[in-house]
Amino acid sequence: MPTYQAPTSDTLFVLNDVLGFERYNNLPGFADATPDMIEAILGEAAKFSEEILQPLNRIGDSEGCTRSDDGSVKTPTGFKEAYDAYTEAGWGTLPFSSEFGGQDLPATLATAVSEFMTGANMSFGMYPGLTAGASAALLAHASQEQKEKYLPNMIAGKWTGTMNLTEPHCGTDLGMLRTKAVPQADGSYKLSGQKIFISAGEHDLTENIIHLVIARIEGAPEGTKGISLFVVPRNLINEDGSSGEKNGVTCGSIEEKMGLHGNSTCVLNFDDATGWLVGVENKGLRAMFTMMNEARLGVGMQGLAVSEVAYQNAVTYAKDRLQGRSISGVKAPDKKADPIIVHPDIRRILMTIRSINEASRALILWTALKGDINRRSDNEEDREAAEDFMELLTPVIKGVVTDKGFENTVMAQQVYGGHGYIAEWGMEQFVRDSRIAMIYEGTNGIQALDLVGRKLGANGGRAIQAFFKEVGSFISANKKNDAMAPYTKPLSKGLTDLQSASMWLMQNAMQKPDNAGAASTDYMHLFGLVAMGYMWGLMAKAALEADGDNNEFMQKKLITGKYFMERIMPETSAHLARISTGCDTMMALEADAF
Amino acid sequence: MPTYQAPTSDTLFVLNDVLGFERYNNLPGFADATPDMIEAILGEAAKFSEEILQPLNRIGDSEGCTRSDDGSVKTPTGFKEAYDAYTEAGWGTLPFSSEFGGQDLPATLATAVSEFMTGANMSFGMYPGLTAGASAALLAHASQEQKEKYLPNMIAGKWTGTMNLTEPHCGTDLGMLRTKAVPQADGSYKLSGQKIFISAGEHDLTENIIHLVIARIEGAPEGTKGISLFVVPRNLINEDGSSGEKNGVTCGSIEEKMGLHGNSTCVLNFDDATGWLVGVENKGLRAMFTMMNEARLGVGMQGLAVSEVAYQNAVTYAKDRLQGRSISGVKAPDKKADPIIVHPDIRRILMTIRSINEASRALILWTALKGDINRRSDNEEDREAAEDFMELLTPVIKGVVTDKGFENTVMAQQVYGGHGYIAEWGMEQFVRDSRIAMIYEGTNGIQALDLVGRKLGANGGRAIQAFFKEVGSFISANKKNDAMAPYTKPLSKGLTDLQSASMWLMQNAMQKPDNAGAASTDYMHLFGLVAMGYMWGLMAKAALEADGDNNEFMQKKLITGKYFMERIMPETSAHLARISTGCDTMMALEADAF
């Protein structure tokens, strides 16, 4: 049976030593997030994750969710009790405004907490995760009346939230959606249509579920210009704020899927369901993007979280499993064989995963902090710069951390040999669960297009130029520091590759847009490597500056970072080489030739 | 529901145009394999695979195998009937000696046939696949009496075979095995112990199952020097050759695994089971390697086969699914959106898989042909050269084609977006099924070590030098051919990287063996890329020389090969860069530091 230990000290290292969280105590809510407070919260989150959530992970996979004929859905054994404990502890309230019952704490901290919970139990983490996304969308776009009606109970976890985008014939291309909304005399709408792949769409954890739904108001323009956002509670809300009679939305079926069985992925049928417009008519897509940006960062975090738990178990197995002898000489002469962690190829796997996970964690928290600055700073310049970075990095994190995260779970599974393929060891569940993160909230191919087609050119390339400048300045500032050379030199090479690729795109994608599409995934991964490399630069610097403090821990950081530079960064050149070949050969065959 | 179409014309292209099969008609059995005969056999194999085996693939996954309390195992609905049809058509007899009821046809042809069957239904293909491996081991090591006793029924498919190596505490490190064999007065042995992960270990397809089992004879030396091979029929064979009373071997349970549910993976308990020594006492490991080399090539073929069927379905979906508009201008103005095959990032996935599959197929058949030459040629020099190549390439094919094959199924699944994650579409089954090929018959890490630690240095590096010479000569011979430049130039670069990596190993692995282990997986992949690149060189040349014959088909080959050179070959430089960093950072952390 797999185990999980929340990576608390790694998270604290990023927050305190790398990001210098204390420097931001002028931001609202940050003053409360003292180092002691952060440590206490992360400690409690670790305990909750390890003791309550992790033991339910395998049960969630084997039992799955079951739908009754009346459309109700039962979650796996223990999920309800765990969810009650979650809400009682107020975990969902951390980053939200105290106006609606939140604690005003940094979203960065909430992100760190949700990594722990997801690492322990990804399926469980989805229920509050989607609620947080839906709450963020309401906060940004709903009327004050709507906020007061829904947010307190959502933030408290008394109600959960969902996002209803996908329909059978449209996923990426939301302009094709057919769910329609008919205006009623009282200002409400009647929604009809079918939504699929709705995570946490129906369950038995809470008395109500607040669906956010995109639909087309009768007579609205075709395409994305006619999409509006609605709030559709599963149970209508009574005058006194309690949940009342059932609305016209039912779970038609639960999808049979590859993994994530503990979360109910539903087909939802809307049949004259009563909903209320959120924000402005026909501007629903913009509101949806608020929700999606939050969610995309969250999905990147899932890629990391499952990779981390898979890594931890691979380490345990590699230390326990005796097989063969070290080629550099017997290491455990008192045993029949050496533990497989002595073999370089096993070490390669562990170091690879470890070095990517630690960089991913830093990158996700670094970006989450930009989000906090963007939402909370009173300095417009700071807000703009933070937003630029957050917008730029969100698709990179979603696309790269989930791709790498999945690869990592596959490598961790490989450490187990044949046992990795057997259900009882739990490793194959990590592979099946983490696979979805590459797909939902926009496939990783879509993330790459978002990066290349939208984010790079936004505001005349302001964000990417600022990124180049920040990384370049870091390299320059540390040029004379010999101890930093193992980090800055490979990073500099990676940055040059990224700049060359960016230049290639500028020169070749304008007149031939397919060149952008043909480059997109490689460009995203090249970007991800440089961003992770930059994180390793920051981490190495922090480790060196710790100066004897917690020395063993810091030494491990320095070695892991060096491994990343030696073994992971060289991939940038292959990406650049591919990008530079353009789209001609890729697109040469007619569709019929396949 | 997924479909499958055997890639008959691609296979014929390799056999006829690339390998020039007719040139080998001086080898025994090859004279019968005329182009017409080959086409007829492949045509029948395609029909059988597409019509009989493919429709059972999803059923096999969803039903799985079920064990009754008496230890008997029921295969999924339809498998028994399909197996009967398989034996009736004599598919298992193709490559075996007519002395035991075989058809003496080239093993290369049998390999091509088994790709089709595996692509249609990997779980089904394992039953005859293991029988073929066990038969090959008996052919090579058993006494004439044993051969006559077992082989005719095994080759005919009346009985199946298995390989019993793994025990709970030992997989890779077979020296630790505990199954013991006690000599009996009549020359037989009584075997006791537990074997796990035994594919096709128990089932209801045939009246008997012939287990090949490695065990330690009482009093034999510890470690690998005390391992002997035994034949242990599930039912003892009567004097008249019929299957008689039950032997002391029972299926204790069926493993719950990630995929491959249609094949019964058994825990087999040997309880004073009667067995007979095969070959020489304490030389069982050598005999087992015969079986494993056959099997490893077969596993590489599985990696290709599932990648191929996943690719085909991704192509179909990409042509059907309407979503978004081409960034280079609307392609299907009469439709609500363009089919997603117009998007470069989708095209990237399809071209990547296609270019790897076609190279893998060529490489597997090229290597299988070496096997035929090695077994059948009367020229010792030819035999030796062929054996060298087969030994060298077997771990590369097993390791690289299954790694890439799995990655390909994941990419093909990605084309489906959310639908790829849903069971009914069948794509996630391909991912789950193909995952095992990276693990069994020696994990891919073990393949890499076999290549670097055993195959490279064998006979003073004779095989690798011959490989360098063959590829180098090919490049030189085509240097002046401009039409070949898109293939020979990148191949030349790749070959140089491989040679540099080999040189690095020579200079650094002797004094520090961990440098070999640290390089092994990257070296194997670098080797695989160059080997595939060489295959594309051969294919491009064959396509150019076809000279207007079947022009459209040949044009596709040329474009696909060019794509491989542009987008896949550049990975060699990243592998070389990683290898060159050595083992120091990788091994720097103490085991306890993880």
Structure description:
Two copies of one chain form a homodimer. By secondary structure, chain A is of the alpha+beta class. The first copy, chain A, has 17 helices and eleven strands. Chain A has helices at 8-18, 35-53, 57-63, 79-88, 107-120, 122-141, 144-156, 284-320, 344-376, 380-415, 427-435, 444-455, 458-477, 485-508, 514-545, 551-568, 571-580, and strands at 66-67, 73-74, 159-164, 180-183, 189-199, 208-217, 228-233, 235-237, 243-246, 249-254, 265-278. In chain A, the strands form three sheets. A five-stranded mixed β-barrel of chain A has the order 4-5-11-7-6. A two-stranded antiparallel sheet of chain A has the order 1-2. A two-stranded antiparallel ribbon of chain A has the order 8-9. In chain A, a hairpin with a 5-residue loop joins strand 4 (180-183) and strand 5. The two termini of chain A are 45 Å apart.
